[in-house]
Amino acid sequence: MVNAARRPGDGPRQAQAIFTATLELLAERGYDGLTMEGVAARSGVHKTTIYRWWTDKDALLGAALLNSALLELPAPDTGTLRGDLLALTGHVLRLLTTEPSASVITAALTAAGRPVLSRLAHEFFADRLAGELVIFDRARQRGEIAADIDPKLVVDLLAGAMWTRVLLRQEQPPPGFAAQAVDLVLTALGWSG
Amino acid sequence: MVNAARRPGDGPRQAQAIFTATLELLAERGYDGLTMEGVAARSGVHKTTIYRWWTDKDALLGAALLNSALLELPAPDTGTLRGDLLALTGHVLRLLTTEPSASVITAALTAAGRPVLSRLAHEFFADRLAGELVIFDRARQRGEIAADIDPKLVVDLLAGAMWTRVLLRQEQPPPGFAAQAVDLVLTALGWSG
What we know:
The structure is a homodimer. Chain A is 67% helix and 0% strand. The first copy, chain A, has 9 helices and no strands. The first copy, chain A, has helices spanning 15-33, 36-43, 47-53, 57-67, 81-97, 101-110, 115-141, 151-168, 177-188.
């Protein structure tokens, strides 16, 4: 686990290089093939530096999943809820369908049976949701949606449709798929732009 | 692969016992630990009988995933689209959250990086969708929804929300979660009962 005195975003100067190496190795070799030694070799950062920040590979993997630029989901700010949801849903779809993120996500799913990965998945999606809430706060302030709308349900419907089509059905969504999903949900929210 | 002269539902008299043993072993030992010998021992069906029907473990696993009673998703027929979608979404949620189906699904996901499992996932969800289409056909005939509604998008949104909340967020959905999702989507479809 990360030392409690440090904030989650903290890390050595070379943190992004370490995170990239960690996720690349996870994608290539799976959870069992991921080692601190491998990350040191791939990132060019000395093993003692890595161990100074993360006590074991689970702590490192957690930090990499949460903080790697590779899986970032920045909250868009386009000026409308529709624009923001299109940007967000399109971004999720790109992460699922383009490399290297697609392989990293498949590898993380492949390890999903392990308790440590369950805990990390919970943290990862809670963290991403927290970042997405601002979209709905701004939409409420602009009077675009009612106060009682449940952002988590909206995000689960939209992100869930992307995951289902790509990872469960193993299909390439047709052009406009994300927009169709967003417009259906916006209709339900009584959104009129 | 299943012999082309046989229909997918065909199989020896003991088919369900073989399918149950196959999925139990997948859940307990993972894809690598699943063997024809293990299935024979667990099901009590002689190995030569199993090999007569399925040439290798991938063919057997495909048949088990598609045809086991454990993962059946029978199309409900409650008389209304809302009733049918509540039943369907509730059933998906139960499969994801109760044993033994929850462990089987996690184990199948855990093997998701393998091409054979990708192909099987595609077939599995295409087969389940084909079964669900009748719900929407009947709703159209009853005049509950417009002719141009995309049932696949509706199913992906609803099933996706269940998968996202349970398997990605690793959370127990609150009571009424499935109904909330169904009612949001029905509002979008202009459904009035």
